[in-house]
Amino acid sequence: MKSKALAPALLAAFLTGALGMSACAPGQDPQSPLASQSSSVADTNALLLLNESLRVKLGTAYSDSWIEDNKLHVAVTTEAAATLVTEAGAVPKIVTLDAGELEAALQAVSAWRATLPDGLGAAIHKLIPDGRTGTLTIFVAPDHLDAVAQAAAADKPAGSVPLVIKASTGLATPL
């Protein structure tokens, strides 16, 4: 199942469970930490649902989103999309790359990774696209950082999408 289809299904399952269990909760003081945590979860869930709705409405003008200061921020590629985001109650940020372009760069770098010699591909632990900055971050085992950076500079696997190469602090994950 594709991740775009999986995310709404997981969210729906989570919300179904959360709503079903809410009827079992004892009465709570609205000022209690548990009550404010529930409110926070409900607010976050509402923002996630708003994001999914905007992603569908914006189509190719959508780039990325994040929650900051309890507000949904949405990176978009057009003024018209920014207006729609504002009207929906979220905070727009106009960027140059859409989600499709970032995904294409991610796939290209992943394919490039498989062609690297001498175990350099295995030194790449994860790839993260960032619609806010229009970059793709490559996390690399520290002892291979320079070699991967040199190979990326020579091969330009992401095309015009800028790469940010950082030392990884963890284990490799399957790409």
Describe this structure in a few short sentences.
This protein has helices spanning 3-22, 33-58, 79-87, 99-113, 120-123, 145-155; strands at 62-68, 71-76, 91-94, 124-130, 135-140, 163-167.
Description of the molecule:
- By secondary structure, the protein is an alpha/beta fold.
- Helix content is 49%, strand content 20%.
- The chain has 6 helices and 6 strands; from the N terminus they run H-H-E-E-H-E-H-H-E-E-H-E.
- The strands form 2 sheets. Strands 1-2-3 form a 3-stranded mixed β-sheet. The protein has a 3-stranded mixed β-sheet with strand order 4-5-6.
- Strand 5, helix 6 (145-155) and strand 6 form a beta-alpha-beta unit.
- The longest helix has 26 residues, at 33-58.
- It is elongated.
- Mean pLDDT is 82; it is low at 8-38.
